[in-house]
Amino acid sequence: MLRRKPTRLELKLDDIEEFESIRKDLESRKKQREDAEVAAAGEEAAVALGADHKSREQIINDRIGYKPQPKAGGRAAHFGTFEF
């Protein structure tokens, strides 16, 4: 097997500028995402502390559009007139 000399890599000014621009772009996106999360958390806290406080189950039911219907009757509907 033939050995060759290691390839020399040179860092150019264009490469450094490209790296810096990409890094700044990623940092700005991360900051925007964090700001959005903080704002969303603040809104959720405001909703939770509001006067129309709903349970977790009610919030989920509203979100998925489920409206539970009350069951007709009680124990008597299942067992007739027997008393236990």
From TrEMBL:
One of its GO terms (biological process) is protein K11-linked ubiquitination. GO terms for cellular component: anaphase-promoting complex. Residues 64-84 are annotated as: Disordered. Residues 9-36 form a coiled coil. Pathway: Protein modification; protein ubiquitination. Keywords: Cell cycle, Cell division, Coiled coil, Mitosis, Nucleus, Ubl conjugation pathway. This is Anaphase-promoting complex subunit CDC26. Its main location: nucleus. Belongs to the CDC26 family. It is found in: Nucleus. It comes from the Eukaryota. PANTHER family: ANAPHASE-PROMOTING COMPLEX SUBUNIT CDC26. It holds the Pfam family ANAPC_CDC26. The keyword Coiled coil applies.
